[in-house]
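Each record in this resource describes a single protein on a pair of labelled lines. With that in mind, the following record should read easily:

===
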Amino acid sequence: MDVYDEVDRRETDAVWLATQNHSTLVTETTVVPFLPVNPEYSSTRNQGRQKLARFNAHEFATLVIDILSDAKRRQQGNSVIAPKDNVELVLKSISNQHSTDSQDNDQPDYDSVASDEETDLENVPPNSNREKSLDLSDGTFTVQEFLEVKNALTASEAKIQQLMKVNSNLSDELRIMQKKGSKVEKQTSVPESDYDNTLHDVELEETSSSRKGRQRSMPWHGEGSIPEMDDPDVDASSTLPSTEDVIRKTEQITKNIQELLRAAQENKHDSYIPCSERIHIAVTEMAALFPKKPKSDMVRTSLRLLTSSAYRLQTECKKTLPLETSPSTDIQLVTQQVIQCAYDIAKAAKQLVTITTKENTN
């Protein structure tokens, strides 16, 4: 940039002298011997800029040609050494076109140097810069692959933002339903039923605890399956857990899903498995609140979606393990599947809260 300013100064001086009437006296105030001081630059740089004026035509032209040759070498990526004979030819052409009576005749050197640069740029194919920008290290990365990865990343980020918004809305709805459920229970409760409700809550808590311990020890039989009781004689039950218990477990599931989505957004793939395990435990505890054979088809469908999605979530998260990951494994696709499973779990939990609130209100 400093050399360019010096070239511009010399060219300006040449134009100025060419337009002056030489019959009149040109005072010293019309001649700028060097670049002016720039207050934005340091004193060392200003001194270096002003010392460029001390170069004569031969020295300054040699400096400019060396700079352009080095720029050409850096651009083309190969060694381009300007022979000394080329410099002499440029200087000879300059001396033939302009007189060398004084140092003020050094200014036209820039025209020849600039034309040399333009000639070099014309020799470069128009697509070379574009191809070089795409030739990253090994040269195997194409524009199409870059656009595909970029589009996939954009879609994943949009999906994450959507799920975060769904979780936020779900949390708000849970709080509203919790307030409505508490209000309805206070309005419909009578002194005679308090004792019965207390006994029912105690029995339900004990049943849930035993059911929870048994379900944790039972293996998953496959995708879409719900662990059933060993006793086939158990009849279908219409008893549903309290709204507060369902909301409390749903909030725990929602919190764990938010941690998983945050890990996906930050590309922390090693956090997938711990998050999926916490979600699996929360889902198991929530499923244990309901009867093993619910009478309502909607409850059975929601529970099946809840548990199967938790199972699929664990399966997808295990694909991020070093032993499970193969060269052909697409981590981006795995992340999308994990996000979809989390979305299905949140959807099923929301359905169970809605059903429980509606049934308990009636």
